[in-house]
Amino acid sequence: xxxxxxxxxxxxxxxxxxxxxxxxxxxxxxxxxxxxxxxxxxxxxxxxxxxxxxxxxxxxxxxxxxxxxxxxxxxxxxxxxxxxxxxxxxxxxxxxxxxxxxxxxxxxxxxxxxxxxxxxxxxxxxxxxxxxxxxxxxxxxxxxxxxxxxxxxxxxxxxxxxxxxxxxxxxxxxxxxxxxxxxxxxxxxxxxxxxxxxxxxxxxxxxxxxxxxxxxxxxxxxxxxxxxxxxxxxxxxxxxxxxxxxxxxxxxxxxxxxxxxxxxxxxxxxxxxxxxxxxxxx
Length: 282
Fold this sequence. Notes:
The chain is an alpha/beta fold. It has a single domain, classed as Vaccinia Virus protein VP39 (Rossmann fold). It is about 35% helix and about 20% strand. The chain is built from ten helices and ten strands. The strands form two sheets. The chain has an eight-stranded mixed sheet with strand order 5-4-1-6-7-9-8-10, sandwiched between helices. A two-stranded antiparallel ribbon has the order 2-3. The mean pLDDT is about 95.
């Protein structure tokens, strides 16, 4: 149950897509003066070292992810916004660490905004608590199951919230739990912005998830996916990922449409690399 450690995968192509979308959503939330709450149901350790000897260095998945974008100055629009946040987490020269979703949220939040983090893995939760020990009351870290605990913070006092749901899906029951959790979350707080990340793997549950979420979303949703290579012939491994957004900002589709061709070109591992962008808004 507790074998997954995101540090091994930090900065890979799936992180790039997830955080590209997250940075745009955080920018949208901060465009209004009223405060908002960010909730991360599977927060991980907060930030990850990419240096020699780190978990990330053992797999070097970041080499075909963020490292392909690092120090590029020709990236368009939303990709440049994303890279600017990665650079902000690396004030010293070089790509030394990769900010997880909690760190990105903290960088982009304002004094009046709040961050609520859940993490069940005991080691990751301990690292997360240590990482945010000096963050003060703006940040709450709970060693709890995000699936079960999301309802405890909905609706937020601010009545504005961005919720990121990104379990590891190492247990295939996570797919069904995501659908169930989203159904309950929308009943409690229908106007929240929810971003659900999922992996593209050769598993029936993965291919069905976007359609299941679309049925819940009704007439206001956006789905973006990026495949960096053909599905592995042996059926094993991550070949892409997707993000499904409930109640997306009206400009999000346009901003992603402008950069997804460049992102596909930068991260492609073979000729089968492709992206999709679909959505519906009232």
